[in-house]
Amino acid sequence: MSFHPQMDYAPARFHRSERKLADDGAPFVYTPDNQAKFDENVQHYPPEQRKSAILYALYLAQGQLGYLTGNAMRFVAQQIGCSTADVEDVVSYYTMFYTKPVGKRVLNVCRTLSCALLGAERVTEELSKKLGIAPGQTTPDGEFTLIEVECLGACDRAPVVMVNDDWHERLAPEQAGKFIDDLRARGPAVFTGCHLKKE
Amino acid sequence: MAFEPVLTSFVREPNAHTLDFYLQRARGYEGLRKALTMQPNDLIEQVKASGLRGRGGAGFPTGLKWQFVDKKSPNPKYICCNADESEPGTFKDHVLMERNPHLLIEGCAISCYAIGAKVAYIYIRGEFYHVQQVLEAEIAKAYQAGFLGRNILGTGFDCDVFVHRGAGAYEAGEETALIESLEGKRAQPRIKPPFPAVAGLYNCPTAVNNVETLCNVPPIVLNGPEWFAGMGPDKNGGPKLYCISGQVKRPGVYEASMHTTLRELIYGEEFAQGMAGGKKFKAIIPGGSSVPLLLDEQLDAPASFDGVQKAGSLLGSAGLIVLDETVCMVWLAMNLLHFYRHESCGKCTPCREGGNWLYQLLQRVEAGEGRMKDIDLLFGVANNIMGKTLCAFGDAAATPVLTTLKLFRHEFEAHVKEGRCTLPSEWRSKHPVMAH
Description:
Strand order of the largest sheet of chain A: 2-1-3-4
Largest sheet of chain A: 4 strands, mixed
Order of helices and strands of chain B: HHHHEHHEHEEHEHHEEHEHEHHHH
Radius of gyration of chain A: 21 Å
Strand content of chain B: 5-15%
CATH topology of the largest domain in chain B: Rossmann fold
CATH class of the largest domain in chain B: Alpha Beta
Number of strands of chain A: 4
Helix content of chain A: 25-40%
CATH superfamily of the largest domain in chain A: Glutaredoxin
Shape of chain B: globular
Oligomer: heterodimer
CATH architecture of the largest domain in chain B: 3-Layer(aba) Sandwich
Distance between the termini of chain B: 53 Å
Largest interface: A-B, 57 and 67 residues
Strand content of chain A: 5-15%
Number of helices of chain B: 16
Helix content of chain B: 40-55%
Strand order of the largest sheet of chain B: 3-4-2-1-5
Distance between the termini of chain A: 74 Å
């Protein structure tokens, strides 16, 4: 006799994994260029340690598609020589991999202490208002995705927003709306990031 | 005696990151040249004598770490450079890698020679892609000039340096988690022992060192351990980079000796120049978000590993976050717990579950819906995380709650009594966007 309370064990619900698999998407292979990059990168590690190149392989796939589909993960598993589950294991852990389509520009707003002290919460608020989406969502035109992220490591130039791989720093909440307009009009030229060529 | 910067002397000059500049102005690769004429063991002795302590947070003596590397092992040895700089309030490695990459490359090569490794991996956080591009371009130049690769400077020493890009995990900054991530797995810490010095990357002897630590190695080799040790208080030698952020006039990275006090760093003319907007100082987090707060009366402590510890906190990664009178301490704990809840790797239950509980409790108190017993519950949950996890992450997650409760319990009580946040500053969101 079980001590557990009587529970309706509906096989239809409980005996099926509730794990959500990523969409399979279209069949996937690397472009020849990406394949060459992968083959070069995997040389950095001992021959029996191909799995070390998994993050790089996933970045390449994500760069090609914008996000990671089931087929892309299966392809990466073949390239590395591991199981698809191993790849999913890694993808689900790291925050920089997307398993759903994202906008052309992903706005990663730092929300951790140093940025928050200088108004990062309000930056998110203003961006959210301007774009008409909540954090985590993508605009209907597929242009912007708004994400709140944890410390980006540029606390002296807070608040920081990372747009894809570019950085925009010292974004005052009052300028957030204008920043979006500028970004739409002029593209990456508006970024004030600490890239060498900017200073 | 005025302090001469060592690591950041040239960072504000244009082209300071290039190989030509490094060779002409900064005595570039002379340290490596000298190191390769020495015996590896003498090199380790020199680093030990200098008293160089790990700059990543724990302050462990670097020379000892290298000595522990099992040199008799038949397996290859590895250097892993920890460039996964994710501790809130820390941004020194960012500057070093972007503006002085050759110093790091030289440091990697020397440390490889010291422990008998042929490969160094620089594990850089995924968000630093712009830094990685600079670093990789400069590594390629170092290969061309013969400072990396086969038969370096004709001595028969081979060394490769590779950059490995992470993908957004704070936990990868922990040394065993970094190794797991380098092996292509989830960044979760391992049970120690065995320590990485015995069984690290690919089960081979490995030394994991912070960027700033490795950058200190070439100057030590060049100028000698006495010069280095003489630069600061006893056992806290050498130059130190301080990252000052928060509500100060001039946030930034400043290099100083560890004689400098916290007060000088906040108010000094050559440092952060005091509080922004004429506000009053409230507290400081002296070593990245994971360490206890210090108050005004403790600011005269020297900002050294031992000095800050004596004052009741830790120097950690030297990320000083300065807080002014407008900061609500319940909000502060909530903000940091959002971070720790999000970044917990999920391996140990106390940290994975406890972090979430703490965050929910803090949210309730901050929203004015808390009860008095929530305060004791916070204390209880935090104490049940402290010291009960594989890595220091658990302690780091519990600390913001314990330290704010210890020093600012009255603020928590006021939140409960008045049923609202008692210090709603204008720089905070009016409708906090709640966590996903």
